[in-house]
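[job 4417] fold queue: 2 targets
>>> target A
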Amino acid sequence: MINDWLQAMGTVSGQKAAQAAALKDKSSAKAFGITSANVEQVVQERSQLLQSLLPAFSQFCQNRLHTPIDKMLPMLWDLWLPLAVKIASQHQKLQRPFVQGILGSQGTGKTTMCQVLGLILQELGYCSVSLSLDDLYKTYHERLELTQADPRLIWRGPPGTHDVDLGINVLEQIRQSQTPVSIPRFDKSAYGGAGDRTEPEIVEKVDILLFEGWFVGVRPIDPLVFDDAPTPIITDADKAFARDTNIRLSEYLPLWERLDSLIVLYPQDYRYSVEWRKQAERQMIAAGKSGMTDAEIERFVNYFWRSLHPELFIKPLAQSASWVDLVIEIDQDHRLTLAKVRK
């Protein structure tokens, strides 16, 4: 497929077909600033970028994704390449490091997107760093104290289990071009899987920060919504937990204010994440690694839905919030479609 594509792009008819396709996809054209006036240049530059990136991307598909490159090529061409170029352009306009927020629930591909964007940005000559919301967890001992104060926080992840001040300091240092920057990292395997802070990564230069997490950019909602909440928020105790978590979200607003842009990875049905997680765990078990049973996964996911339910927090954000720049919709087979672009 790659050779066929390269041969086609080397012809006038192949270039014209790519230009027509770029203009036909109205959402993509709007998101990435493609017009009839610049489409020829855009396609030519994207084609050149793809060819220079192919060796590194092929190795990435083989070693990280364990997926044939042919399967990933359409997504690379249609989404990841133009998105990386857009992020680079936004960085250039700011004349300072750019902070790109990426919101997505479990299984939406946040980590993969950050890794691919990092490859492309490197090819473009930019120094990018990925930071997960998970890297901002409080230390193991701090979370022990937290659980003693609130036994409902049985797992790390919900609002309240992160060191928000740490995140604010890191993002602020990056935005102000301070160097070097100490990027926090978290070892999920420490303390038998409970996890703990580990040695930070020292970075000399950051042009672009890709900041991803399962509720990055999510904001508090009207607490009255919980009076008639969807499952698994059923009991009075469930509703109390959801309201308290909603209150804790306010602590994260100063962190979200330091985002320059927010992308939402949005499943067509939030319940897909359960099946995606089950598939991943089964693959781990088949490979001889430890993994959760289906019942354990359902308890785990339901816990997070009780804390921040996707229908209550992420759906409204994806549909109407003015601070979301791009919504990428995901179907059950992990196919991606641009669903919303901020005007």
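>>> target B
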Amino acid sequence: MKMRLDRTKLLNHINDSDIQSQLTKIIDKAEQCLRTHQPNATDFYEPHIIAKVSGILIQVPDLHFTIAGGYSEAERRRIVVYPDYMEYDNELEHISVLQINSLKPISHPQVLGTLTGLGIKREKIGDIITTDKYCQVIMDKTVAEFARYNIETIGRVKVTIDETGRDKISLPECQLKEITTTVASMRLDGIVAAGFNIPRQVATNLIKADKVKCNWEIAKSPAVQIEVNDLISCRKHGRIKVVEIIGTTKKDRIKIKINKLQ
């Protein structure tokens, strides 16, 4: 008997066509798992996709799923779907960890550019962790060996690549700069301007150019209202997080605390 999930019912609350397309691919994986009784792993996705698909898959009977990114703090993760009677094992995740060693520091964009330059799709790559001495890349196991044997340089820096274990993943400490400032309102453009110390018009232009994300989704409007714990990223500027609304000033401006990730 063919297993066919009701996509209309599962996706009727999703309005964004691009997100619908990504979620449909994940539902296809779940459907294949139920039909063949074999586990299946999706591509790597950003947190907002993972959150949406988790709410969908939990509605599917006879199916279990696990979210995996190689380590507990991973940002880009994949979903492993498997029959509800099957015992879970990390091997089902099909994740490899490559360590790229170099004599000079290499950056996240350089590593990502080299990998995609080989024809490896972004969706097959999880987190990229850089340190002063090496870089670690979480990848789909099916493309990791290809990357390992086809990369000799990144930029102009010679590198060596080894496969390592998940227990060897080392995250650099995240340094935060705490900013206390005031804004006229909790509009996105004002928060971006205050958090990144740029003119408000520049912030507005960045948002309109789709260079700003709120909670990992491209911001649709400068007028989006920001709440405490919202994470905002801006291309080439970094990330900020609104951590507290302290109160209002005598001039009715809102006093807030922002953490900027260094």
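[job 4417] complete. Note on B: Helices lie at 7-11, 17-36, 47-57, 108-117, 141-150, 188-196, 200-208.
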